[in-house]
Structures are given as C-alpha cells and as structure tokens.
Write a structure and sequence with these properties.
Structural class: mainly alpha
Order of helices and strands: HHHHHHHHH
Shape: rod-shaped
Number of strands: 0
Number of helices: 9
Distance between the termini: 54 Å
Largest sheet: none
Number of domains: 1
Helix content: over 70%
Length: about 230
C-alpha cells in the first residue's frame, strides 16, 4: 500500500510545489513506535495464517465427494464395521471419521453408533473452525491496538500543545497527529483482510461440514451393527 501511494503523493507534492515531509515512508518512520511494531508483527502473522487457511481449508481436504462415494460403494457391497474402520484409517475426510467412530461403537448398538458419529462430527467441525478462528481474533484486535496508538498519538499532540502554552504550530503538532492517524490506518489494514478471509472461509467450512454431516448420517444407516476389529493393520 505504501509503495502504491508514495508515487501519487510525490506527484501531488510536485504539482503543488511543496514538500509535505517525504510521503508515506517518512510518515511511517516518524510514527514508528511500540504500537507500530505490534501491528506490523500482527500483519506478518496474519499473512502466514491467511496463506495456511487458503492452502488447508478446501473442500477436498474437509470431505471430498469422491470419499463419500467410495464409502457408499463399500457399504453397498455389504461391508461391515471392520472393513469401514480399515478403510477410514487411510482416509482423513470428514465422512470417514464419522463412519469410523460409528463403526467402533457398533457393538453397543445402533443408538451408540449414532451418538458416537454425532460426537465425532462435532469434534471435526470444531477442528476446522479453529483453523480460521485466529483470523477473527487478529481482525478484532487490530483496530483496538490501532485505536490505542491513536489515543497515544493524540496525547503526544496535546502534550506538545500544552508545553508550548497553546501556541504550538502545525509542525510541532504533526508528529503526534501523524502517529494517531497512521496507527489507525495500520489497524484497519490489518483487520480488513483477516475478517474478510475469516468470513469467506467460515461459510466454506459451514457448507462443507453440513453436507458431510448429512452424508455421514445417511451412510450410517447402511452400516450394520457388529463387532469391530481393533487390531492394528
């Protein structure tokens, strides 16, 4: 953002024939303090988390339709709980986890199978939502840290004004005002991508997990009760 706006500011300065302090980069260095460090550090964490979410939170990773079809064919062939558990060991999908939990509870009856499947579905959905929750936290804390920096910058500006007996000029007040405005800008630049990514991928996770729960519940009814082979293969 700074690289994109600096040429525009420089052009505006040239046309006006005035030097307003070196553009955005100079404003950044004038405003650099502890709040800036926190916000920049949060931005680096946010970039890493957004990248991880984009790479991990995909329909193919949560519950691919191919996986659901594979288990549907397996159950249609008359496979029992033992075969389902073995097939689920090599399948990290949502549906596989739900069916494996139900199959392992099959000796206790159909009711226990449904309860185990429901608990596993809840656990898996929570696991996927936790992957994006950090973006929600960063997105909400960013503007608050920026607001704290804004208040601090205004304190500096008013302190300068008071020390000068109310006769401080714009040049003397500019440092505190620059801190105030730049902290607000950094907080918003940090929050907007985080909350946007969180909102988009929360919808993706909700949609895919809801569909996977429905598919798991449908396939569960085809799974016969019986003993489960618990030996490692």
């Amino acid at each position: 953002m700074c690289l994109a706006t600096s040429p525009a500011l420089a052009q505006g300065d040239a046309s006006a024939g005035e030097n307003v302090g070196g553009g955005v980069w100079n404003l950044f260095w004038q405003s650099f303090d502890l709040f800036s460090v926190v916000l920049i550090g949060g931005s680096l964490v946010a970039v890493a988390q957004i990248t991880r979410v984009i790479m991990d939170v995909r329909e193919s990773n949560i519950s691919a339709p191919e996986s659901t079809e594979s288990f549907a064919k397996l159950l249609e062939s008359g496979a029992g709980p033992d075969e389902v558990v073995r097939a689920a060991k090599d399948d990290p999908s949502f549906v596989a986890g739900v069916l494996a939990a139900a199959a392992e509870a099959s000796p206790r009856g159909r009711g226990a199978m449904r309860e185990a499947a429901e608990l596993e579905a809840t656990r898996l959905a929570s696991m996927w939502f936790r992957k994006i929750e950090i973006l929600n936290v960063i997105g909400n804390l960013g503007p608050l840290v920026g607001l704290a920096g804004t208040v601090w910058g205004m304190v500096i500006a008013f302190d300068t004004l008071g020390a000068s007996g109310g006769e401080a000029g714009p040049a003397q007040l500019s440092s505190g005002i620059a801190k105030a405005l730049f902290h607000t800008l950094l907080g918003l630049v940090l929050a907007i991508p985080c909350l946007l990514t969180f909102g988009l991928y929360r919808g993706v996770i909700d949609r895919v997990c809801t569909r996977a729960m429905t598919d798991g519940a449908r396939l569960l009814e085809r799974l016969p009760a019986g003993s489960t082979d618990r030996e490692d293969t």
